[in-house]
C-alpha cells in the first residue's frame, strides 16, 4: 500500500460558506439574473445569504456561484486578484479556472468599474458563434442617480417596452460610448450583469443605450 | 504498468454464478430537484442567458439524454428544469390542451421530480411548457413560456447542412426563405406555410417559432412574457425577451395573414380563437372546438355556450 | 350535444399496466431471470452495452428484459440511466495489445505471432435452424481454457499478442496511429458537436452509432460508393483492464476489466512524390462482442477520412455531417416515433389551406369545369 499524503489537498485557508442551499440558492440567483437580462435596466431583487471575502460582494458572488464551474474560465479584476482569499473562495465553490488573460475568460468580475478594462479585451464571440463571448459581472453601489459616479442612460431594444431611463453607479464617464461600441458589434459583443446591494440589473449586448 | 490480465480469470460478461440476483438490482434512485444535476442546470442556464442576450440566435448546448424520447419534448423539459424553482406553478400543454397524453406525461414528470405545484389555468401559471400552441389568454410579464422545438433551424428544409445554415445566419443572408415563400405564391397563389412560419426577431435573426400554427405568430410580437425555446435532439436553445419585435416574414403584395374560422367554438362560442376540427360521424358531420382547453373551460364556466354545449366537462352527456 | 373526452392520465396508467402484463407473458411459464439473459443472450446484452455506452452486463440484461427484447428501447433505458451517473473524468487509454484475447483473426496473414484464434463465433456454422441450439444438454463440453491457448503460449515467452497493424507499422507499411496528444478527448455527451469534427468525436459518435445503420453504410462503401479497398488486418475480442489516474491520490487505480471488440481495417494505400506509399487504416472499437459493428465502424471511419487523405468525395458514407448526425438510434427512433404524437393543430392549419385553395381553384374554373374534374 503506497503512503498517501493528503497534506497538499488540505487548504491552508478555509473558504467562507457558499449558498445556504446550493440547489435553491443557485436557482434563485439565476432567475434574478435571467429576468435582469430579459428586461435591461430594470433591477431585480437579489436576496443573498452568503458572506464572501472582501472585496468580492455577496451579490457578485451569488451570480458567479450560480453560473460558473470548471467549464467557465473566470477573470478577476486587479483589486479582486490582489486578495488571495477571493481566488480561494471562488475556486473552492465553483471549480472555475482563474485566468490572467481577460480574452480567455467566459466570466469576469469587476469590483472597480471606474477602472474597468475596455470591452474589446474580452471575448465577443464570432459571427457564427456569437454566444462564445464573455459575461461581465460588475459590482456597483446602486441603481439610482444618487449612487456615487452614477451615469444616467436611456435604454431601448429587446426587453425594453418603448424606452427606459436607467441610472447606476459607479460607472465610467464614457459608459454610453462603450455600450454603443459593444452594440455596434451585434450579434457579437459582451453582456453585462450589474450587481448592487440586494439587486441585479442587466445590460445585454442587444441593448441600445444613450446618454440621458 | 498494470499487471496483465489473468488468463484463468472468469469471463466478466458471463458471471459463473447462475443464481438470479435477489431483490431489486438497483437501489431506489434519488434524483436531484427537477431531475437534472446542478452542473447540467448551470450549463443550460448559461445557454439561456446568452440566448436572451442574442434574441432569435440558436445557442448550442450539451443537451442531456432524458428519460423520455427525443422529439417528445426533451429540449423543453431541460429548459423548464433549469428555470424551475420551488415556488413556481407549472402548466403543460400539447396542442393547446392540458389533458393530451404527452402533456399529462410531462406534467407528471415534474410533479414527481420537482414536486412543484401544477395548474391548468393559464393565468395562474408562472412557467408554461407548450408544444404547438400559444395560449389564447394574453400572457403577462412574470410568465415564462417554454416551447418544445423539433427542428430549430428555420433554414433546414432549404439547406440541410448545419455548416451551411450557420454561415447564412452569420451573414444574415435570408434570401432563401423569401425565395421559398415566393415560390409558394407562384405555385399556389398563397404562402403554403401554415405552421412553423418563420419570423424575424428584433430585426436580425430569422427564427423558427416551433410548429405553432401561424395563427399564433402575432402573439409572439411585443409579448410581455419571456419566451424560451428548447430543442433537445438538435441541442439548441433560443429566446425572445419580453417586448421584442417579432415579424412574420411576408411581402408587400402578399402580407402575412392568419387563418380565420367561419364558425365560433361549438362548446364556448368563442370567436377569433384557434379551433380543432372534430369529426362526429362518417356522413360529413363535424364541429369546431377551442384547441385551448383552459380558455374554453373558463368561458363555459363564465356562462358562454356554443351550439353543441352539453354541460360541464366530465359530466354525463 | 358533445362533452369533451377527458382522462389522459387514466389511459396512460392503463396502457402501462397492459405493457407490464404483456411483458410478463403467460404467467404459467417461469419468469426469465436477468442471469439467464446475461448468460444466454450475451450478444443482445453486448449490443445494448455498446450502443448504450455503459459497460454493465447486469444492467444491460435488465434493460433487455424491461424493453421486452426491443434492443433500441433497451439502449435508450441504459442511456437515460447513464446520463444520471456522476462523471469522475476520463480513464487512461486501454491497451488492446495487452488484451486477454478470446478471439483473434487476421485476413491479411496466414499466420502471425500469437496465431489465429477462432473463439466463440458463428463463422463456419451451418445455419440450420434448430439443429442443437436451445436443446437441453446438446452441446459439447469444451474446456474454457482452450479459449486462452494463444495467451498462455505468449505468457511463456513472447509477451502480449502484437496487433497486426503494429507488425506492419514496424516496417512503415501502414500509416501510424495518430499520436496521443495527452489532452482530455472531446466528450460528445458533454459538449454539442460542431462540424467538422476531430478524430475522437468521430470515433465516439460511431462507437455508439446504430449497428444496422453503420452496417448499411459500410456495405455501401464495398459496393463502390466510396470504395476503400479494405482488408481485415485484425479483429480481436477479449478482456482489457481499464484504469484511472486519480489526481487526488496521485497514482493510477485499476477499475476492473471490460470486454472489447477491436477491428483494424487495412485500407487503400496512399503515397506522393515525397512520401513512399503506405497503407491507411480504418478503426473500430466496441464494447462486448460486436464484430459486425466493429467492422462496419472501421469501414465508415475510413471513408470519413477522405479529405485528410486527399481522396475525392462523392459517396454518402463520406459525408461527415450526414453520417454522424444520423447515426444515433435513440435520437432517430425518438424523432421518427414522435410523429405518432398529436399534430392536429398543425394538420388543421394545412387542412384549412388545402380546402381554401381547392375552393379558389373551383371558383376560378367555373362550375362546369369543376364537375368535369370531379368525374
Biggest β-sheet of chain C, characterized? 4 strands, antiparallel
Distance between the termini of chain A: 71 Å
Rg of chain C, nearest Å: 27 Å
C-alpha termini separation of chain C = 36 Å
Q: Could you say which overall geometry of chain C the principal axes of the C-alpha atoms support?
A: globular
Going across the major beta sheet of chain A, what is the strand order? 1-8-7-4-3-2
Quaternary state, please? Answer: heterotrimer
What is the radius of gyration of chain A computed over CA atoms, rounded to a whole number of angstroms?
18 Å
- What structural class do helix, strand and pairing data of chain A support? alpha/beta
Q: State the largest interface.
A: B-C, 90 and 85 residues
Chain-averaged pLDDT of chain C: 87
Overall mean pLDDT of chain A stands at 93
Strand order of the largest sheet of chain C: 1-2-3-4
Can you give a write-up of this model?
The complex is a heterotrimer of chains A (212), B (317) and C (375). By secondary structure, chain A is of the alpha/beta class. Chain A has one domain: Bacterial phosphonate metabolism protein PhnH (Rossmann fold, 3-Layer(aba) Sandwich), CATH 3.40.50.11310. Helices cover 25% and strands 19% of the residues of chain A. Chain A contains five helices and nine strands; from the N terminus they run αβαβααββββαβββ. Chain A has helices at residues 22-38, 58-67, 78-81, 84-94, 175-184; strands spanning 44-45, 74-76, 107-110, 135-139, 151-156, 164-168, 191-196, 199-203, 208-211. Chain B starts with 37 loop residues before the first helix and ends in a 16-residue tail after the last helix. Chain B has helices at 38-53, 74-83, 101-114, 162-170, 175-188, 217-220, 293-301, and strands at residues 59-60, 89-94, 117-118, 127-131, 144-148, 199-201, 205-207, 226-231, 236-240, 246-248, 275-279, 286-290. Chain B is built from seven helices and twelve strands. In chain B, the strands form three sheets. Chain B has a seven-stranded mixed beta sheet. A three-stranded antiparallel beta sheet of chain B has the order 7-6-10. Chain B has a two-stranded antiparallel sheet with strand order 11-12. Chain B is of the alpha/beta class and 317 residues long. Chain B is globular, with a radius of gyration of 24 Å. Chain B folds into two domains: 38-163 and 194-247, Bacterial phosphonate metabolism protein PhnH (Rossmann fold); 260-309, no CATH class. Residues 1-24 of chain B have low confidence and may be disordered. The longest helix of chain B has 16 residues, at 38-53. Chain C is α+β, with helices and mostly antiparallel strands. Chain C folds into three domains: 10-82, no CATH class; 96-122 and 140-332, no CATH class; 342-374. Helices cover 41% and strands 14% of the residues of chain C. Chain C has a four-stranded antiparallel beta sheet with strand order 1-2-3-4. In chain C, a hairpin with a 7-residue loop joins strand 3 and strand 4 (278-287). The longest helix of chain C is centred in the last third of the chain and has 31 residues, at 344-374. Residues 147-158 and 369-375 of chain C have low confidence and may be disordered. Chains in contact: A-B, A-C, B-C. At the B-C interface, helix 3 and strand 11 of B face helix 1, helix 2, helix 3, helix 4 and helix 5 of C.
Amino acid at each position: 500500500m503506497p503512503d498517501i499524503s493528503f497534506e497538499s489537498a488540505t487548504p491552508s485557508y478555509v473558504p467562507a460558506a457558499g449558498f445556504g442551499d446550493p440547489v435553491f440558492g443557485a436557482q434563485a440567483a439565476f432567475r434574478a439574473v435571467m429576468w435582469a437580462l430579459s428586461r435591461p435596466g430594470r433591477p431585480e431583487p437579489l436576496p443573498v445569504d452568503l458572506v464572501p471575502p472582501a472585496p468580492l460582494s455577496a451579490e457578485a458572488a451569488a451570480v458567479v456561484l450560480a453560473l460558473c464551474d470548471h467549464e467557465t474560465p473566470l477573470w478577476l479584476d486587479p483589486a479582486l486578484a490582489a486578495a488571495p482569499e477571493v481566488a480561494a473562495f471562488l475556486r473552492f465553490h465553483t471549480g472555475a479556472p482563474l485566468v490572467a488573460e481577460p480574452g480567455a475568460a467566459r466570466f469576469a468580475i469587476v469590483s472597480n468599474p471606474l477602472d474597468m478594462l475596455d470591452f474589446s479585451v474580452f471575448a465577443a464571440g464570432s459571427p457564427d458563434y456569437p454566444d462564445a463571448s464573455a459575461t461581465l459581472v460588475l459590482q456597483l453601489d446602486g441603481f439610482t442617480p444618487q449612487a456615487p459616479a452614477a451615469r444616467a442612460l436611456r435604454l431601448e431594444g429587446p426587453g425594453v417596452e418603448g424606452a427606459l431611463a436607467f441610472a447606476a453607479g459607479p460607472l465610467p464617464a464614457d459608459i454610453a460610448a462603450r455600450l454603443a461600441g459593444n452594440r455596434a458589434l451585434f450579434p457579437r459583443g459582451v453582456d453585462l450583469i450589474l450587481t448592487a446591494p440586494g439587486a441585479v440589473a442587466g445590460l445585454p449586448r442587444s441593448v441600445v443605450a444613450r446618454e440621458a | 504498468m498494470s499487471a496483465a490480465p489473468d488468463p484463468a480469470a472468469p469471463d466478466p460478461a458471463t458471471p459463473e454464478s447462475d443464481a438470479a440476483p435477489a431483490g431489486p438490482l438497483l437501489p431506489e434512485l434519488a434524483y436531484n430537484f427537477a431531475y437534472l444535476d446542478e452542473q447540467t442546470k448551470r450549463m443550460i442556464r448559461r445557454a439561456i442567458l446568452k440566448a436572451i442576450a442574442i434574441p432569435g440566435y440558436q445557442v448550442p448546448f450539451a443537451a442531456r439524454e432524458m428519460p423520455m424520447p427525443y422529439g417528445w419534448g426533451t429540449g423543453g423539459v431541460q429548459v423548464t428544469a433549469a428555470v424551475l424553482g420551488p415556488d413556481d406553478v407549472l402548466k403543460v400543454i400539447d396542442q393547446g390542451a392540458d389533458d393530451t397524453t404527452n402533456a399529462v406525461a410531462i406534467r407528471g414528470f415534474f410533479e414527481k421530480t420537482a414536486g412543484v405545484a401544477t395548474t391548468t389555468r393559464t393565468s395562474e401559471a408562472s412557467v408554461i411548457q407548450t408544444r404547438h400552441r400559444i395560449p389564447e389568454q394574453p400572457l403577462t410579464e412574470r410568465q415564462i413560456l417554454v416551447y418544445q422545438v423539433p427542428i430549430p433551424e428555420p433554414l433546414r428544409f432549404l439547406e440541410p447542412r448545419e455548416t451551411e445554415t450557420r454561415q447564412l445566419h452569420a451573414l444574415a443572408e435570408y434570401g432563401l426563405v423569401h425565395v421559398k415563400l415566393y415560390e409558394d405564391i407562384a405555385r399556389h397563389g398563397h404562402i403554403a406555410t401554415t405552421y412553423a412560419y418563420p419570423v424575424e426577431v428584433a430585426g436580425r435573426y430569422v427564427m423558427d417559432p416551433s410548429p405553432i400554427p401561424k395563427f399564433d405568430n402575432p402573439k409572439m410580437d411585443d409579448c410581455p412574457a419571456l419566451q424560451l425555446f428548447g430543442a433537445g435532439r438538435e441541442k439548441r436553445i433560443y429566446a425572445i425577451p419580453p417586448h421584442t419585435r417579432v415579424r412574420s416574414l411576408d411581402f408587400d403584395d402578399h402580407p402575412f395573414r392568419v387563418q380565420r374560422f367561419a364558425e365560433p367554438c361549438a362548446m364556448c362560442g368563442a370567436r377569433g380563437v384557434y379551433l380543432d376540427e372534430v369529426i362526429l360521424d362518417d356522413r360529413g358531420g363535424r364541429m369546431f372546438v377551442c384547441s385551448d382547453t383552459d380558455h374554453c373551460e373558463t368561458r363555459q364556466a363564465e356562462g358562454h355556450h356554443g351550439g353543441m354545449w352539453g354541460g360541464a366537462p366530465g359530466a354525463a352527456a | 350535444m358533445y362533452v369533451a373526452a377527458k382522462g389522459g392520465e387514466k389511459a396512460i396508467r392503463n396502457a402501462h399496466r397492459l405493457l407490464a402484463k404483456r411483458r410478463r407473458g403467460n404467467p404459467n411459464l417461469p419468469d426469465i431471470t436477468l442471469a439467464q439473459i446475461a448468460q444466454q443472450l450475451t450478444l443482445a446484452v453486448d449490443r445494448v452495452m455498446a450502443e448504450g455506452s455503459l459497460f454493465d452486463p447486469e444492467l444491460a440484461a435488465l434493460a433487455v428484459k424491461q424493453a421486452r427484447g426491443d434492443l433500441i428501447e433497451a439502449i435508450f433505458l441504459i442511456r437515460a440511466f447513464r446520463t444520471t451517473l456522476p462523471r469522475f473524468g476520463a480513464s487512461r487509454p486501454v491497451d488492446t495489445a495487452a488484451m486477454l484475447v478470446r478471439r483473434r483473426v487476421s485476413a491479411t496473414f496466414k499466420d502471425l505471432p500469437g496465431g489465429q484464434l477462432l473463439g466463440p463465433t458463428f463463422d463456419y456454422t451451418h445455419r440450420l435452424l434448430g439443429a442443437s441450439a436451445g436443446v437441453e444438454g446438446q452441446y459439447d463440453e469444451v474446456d474454457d481454457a482452450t479459449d486462452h491457448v494463444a495467451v498462455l503460449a505468449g505468457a511463456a515467452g513472447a509477451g502480449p499478442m502484437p496487433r497486426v497493424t503494429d507488425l506492419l507499422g514496424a516496417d512503415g507499411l501502414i500509416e501510424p496511429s495518430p499520436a496521443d496528444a495527452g489532452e482530455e478527448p472531446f466528450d460528445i455527451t458533454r459538449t454539442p458537436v460542431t462540424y467538422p469534427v476531430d478524430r475522437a468525436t468521430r470515433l465516439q459518435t460511431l462507437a455508439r452509432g446504430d449497428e444496422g445503420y453503420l452496417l448499411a453504410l459500410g456495405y455501401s462503401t464495398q459496393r463502390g460508393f466510396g470504395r476503400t479497398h479494405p482488408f481485415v488486418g485484425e479483429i480481436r475480442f477479449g478482456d482489457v483492464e481499464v484504469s484511472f489516474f486519480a489526481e487526488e491520490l496521485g497514482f493510477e487505480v485499476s477499475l476492473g476489466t471490460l470486454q472489447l471488440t477491436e477491428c483494424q481495417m487495412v485500407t487503400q494505400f496512399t503515397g506522393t512524390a515525397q512520401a513512399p506509399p503506405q497503407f491507411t487504416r480504418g478503426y473500430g472499437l466496441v464494447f462486448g462482442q460486436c464484430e459486425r459493428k466493429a467492422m462496419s465502424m472501421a469501414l465508415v471511419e475510413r471513408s470519413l477520412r477522405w479529405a485528410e487523405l486527399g481522396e475525392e468525395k462523392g459517396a454518402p458514407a463520406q459525408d461527415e455531417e450526414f453520417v454522424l448526425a444520423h447515426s444515433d438510434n435513440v435520437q432517430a427512433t425518438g424523432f421518427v416515433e414522435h410523429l405518432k404524437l398529436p399534430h392536429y393543430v398543425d394538420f388543421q392549419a394545412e387542412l384549412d389551406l388545402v380546402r381554401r385553395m381547392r375552393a379558389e381553384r373551383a371558383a376560378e374554373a367555373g362550375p362546369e369545369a369543376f364537375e368535369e374534374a370531379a368525374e
